[in-house]
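Before the break, one more example. Copy the sequence into your notebook; we will annotate it together after we see the structure.
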Amino acid sequence: MLVLDRTINRRRFIKSVLISSSAVALAARFGIRDAKALEGISVVVIGAGIAGLAAADLLRKSGANVIVLEAKPHIGGRLLTDWSMGAPFEVGAGWIHGPSSDNPTKQLADAIGAKYVVTDDENSVYFDIEGYEYDEDEVERIVDAWEGVLEYIDNNYEANDPRSLLQAIKDYRPAYLNDPGIMWAFSAFTEFSKGGAIEKLSAPLFNWDEAFDGSDVVVTTGYDQILRPLADGVDIKLSHIVSAVEYDAEDGVIVTTDKGAFEADYCICAVPLGVLKANKIKFDPELPSDYKSSINKIGFGSVTKLALKFDEPFWDTETQYFGITTEPKGRWNYWLNYRTFSNENILLGLSVGDYALTADRMSDSEMVEDALEVLRNVWEDDVGTPTQVLATHWAEDPYTLGAYAFPQPGNRKSDFDDLGEPIEDCLILIGEHTIFDYAGTTHGAFMTGVRAAEYIIDEES
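Here is what the structure looks like once it is written out:
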C-alpha cells in the first residue's frame, strides 16, 4: 500500500522562540525557575485545557497567585480520555502530531513515561462507494490527484488569494469534483486534518502551517495524563461558568462567574474559539474591533468520533486504518482499528467536514445506525451489534461549540497570531486559535499558554 504524506509541502521550520519557551515551561515543572519572580502578582486563567494549564503552571512556579476557572466538572477541555471501553477513547485530541523531540506535547508525554503506538498511514485499506476495495493503481491515482491539487496551489496561489480549496480543485481539474475517490481523499485527509469542509477552507492557507517531524502516535496510556503535572498545585475551580470579564490596565481585571467574582492583576482567557464566536463571555470594554473581526473570520469546525465495541471482530485485525468512500462527503469515511494497539474489538469512526456538524446533532443511537450502514456497505451481514458505544458532539458542547480552528477564505495568518497579542496589558487570549503555525494542535495550544505566561513574567521583571 502507498505511503500518504499528509503534510505535503508544509513548512517545517521550527521557530526557536517557541521551542525555547516550551523548554522553559518544562524546566519550570522541575523547579528550575525563579519562584519569586511574580510574588504579589495575581492572575485569573479562564479554562483548564492544555493552554490554560500551561500558563497557570509556569506562572505559579514563578510565584504568582493563580486561580484557574473551568466551566466543566473536569480539567482538560478538548483533551480528555475515557477508559470505560477498556482502551483509551480520546474524546478530544487523539494523536500527538509530529512527535519529535522538539514537540512540547511529546516532551510532556515523555516526562510522565507515556507509552505510544505509531499510527501507520501505510497500513490502510480503502473501499469505493460500492464497498469494494480499491486496487493499488486506483489508490495511486487518487493520491496523485490529491497531491497534484496541493502542489498546484503551492505553485500558483498567493497568501491573500480569497479562493476556497473547493474552488481551487475546480480551477485545477473540474472533473475531480465528481470523482468520489478523489473527493474522499480531500475529506478523509484534508477535512479531517484541518477540522473544516473544503468549501470553507482557504486554498492558500490551509496547508501553510508548520509541522514537527515524525509519524503521528496514539498515547496508549491515556493522552490526558500529560495534564496532571501541569495541574499539580494549581488552584483550579471546576464548574465555574464565566459570564463577564472587566479589564483595565490600571485597575486590573474582574472575572464574573455563576459562583462569584474574582479580581486579579491579569486575566488569561483560554476558552475555545467557538465560545468567543458565540459571545458567551461579555468583555468590558468590548474587545478591540480587529480582535472581534478575526474571531468572526476564523473558521471553527468539528470532527465527530464514534467508538463501536463488538464481541468479535469482523474486520482484518492487522489493518490499522480503513477508508470508506461515502456520501455525503465526510460521512464516517475513516476508521481506526483498535486491535492494532489494544486487545479490544473497537472500531473508531470519524465524520469530518460539514457532515461532522450533522453528526454532532444526532443522538447517539441515530449516530450508531448511520455509521453501521456505512460499515455494512463493506462487510455486509458480518457486521454485528455493538456492545458498547462512545460518541462525541463537540459542536453541541456549550463550553466548546466546535473542535478546532481553521483558516477560511479571506483569512490571513495574522488573524490567528494577532489574537494572542495582549489587550490593555492585562488581558491575553490564548489557545490553538491564536497561533497560525500550529493551529488545531495540542502543542500549539500549549505554546500559547507559555507565551502568555512569559509576557507577564517579562512585564513584571
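The first helix runs from residue 16 to 29. The radius of gyration is 22 Å. Try to locate both features in your own notes.
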